[in-house]
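*** Protein under study ***
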Amino acid sequence: MKKALVLLLNLFLITGAVQAEKKDAIITGADQTSLYLPYLKGKRIGMLVNQTSIIGKRSSVDSLQSVGVSIVAIFGPEHGFRGNASNGAAVSDETDDKTGIPVISLYGKKNKPTKEDMDKIDLMIFDLQDVGCRFYTNINVLARVMEACAENGKELLILDRPNPNAYIDGPVLDMKFKSGIGMFPIPITHGLTIGEFAQMINGQGWLANKEQCKLKIIKVKNYSHAMYYELPVHPSPNLNTQQSILLYPSLCPFEGTIISQGRGTYMPFTVLGAPLLKGKYDFSFKPVSIQGMSEAPLHQDQDCYGLDLRNYDAKKLWASGKIDIKWMIDLYSAYPDKAKFFDATQSKAMGRIEARMGTDQFQKQVEAGMSEAEIRKSWEPGLSEYKKMRLQYLLYP
């Protein structure tokens, strides 16, 4: 009787987690527990989650386990289940100390659940906070998990969350440059939530052999794409502020150049610079190795000179619906050794600029001195065609 009372109390606490919110506040799929808790009863549950997967202010794994949900496996994406692994670092399987649940890494020896993994579960839950960019790997994990579910006859339950960069901009990926940081023919910012993106994956036949994954989506309540959304939990070690999240679509392409984006500092994706820009800019920073964030960052232990965007009004990028490519144009113009600017080998970058921008034209355009307007014009008609295609998969206005 006592155990039953504790479970009922915990259930009340998590289902009432958002009741104190003001009327018409955005309520994530995870927070609407009454819509899916009955569906989990009697099922063996697998969860693709990380530190952003919360109900109220508590881990969704911890919350659901506390009310008797049978979670038999946790699947961890890049940065791991608790979100403390460095960018690009392989993550090992483990047992979660707090819950005792096995954690199966999908960013280490394998990137997709095996048949053996899927045989252990009846239902997979996907609950990750995405940031709306082609090169942010959550959508790749989504596709692989959908594929595993389709191949093994399992349903995928998505607890949807808002997109903080819910606009559409950038060149559509030329599939010649398909890679681990660009798997789909979409622009840099795709303007979809994870739930909507899952529908697009099914609808466009992007899974192997055009498999179809059975989906159940718990929609975000009181949400539209026009709403500004500030993330309650940092989605990864190097997106540690709302400012970095908003600047990420514009600054991540610099990973295909000699320019540091601040990895190796506590202000990543809010600064840009390189040692050879000394004398061109007054602002400077020094990347160092930081465990759990960036080991061996570009230009480690060297003073980098460039742009300080920490106080830049990044919200206007969201409001305008455009990434900023002028910073790339300006820094290329200022860089003294232009032959090295886009040299990915020299910069130790994570993929060449083609992989980041999705086209081999962008580098040529910047080197030729084309204007921002001219470069943007080259993104058509692909960008407009994508916007039209996207409409059929929307869950929110």
Summary: Residues 242-359 form one domain.
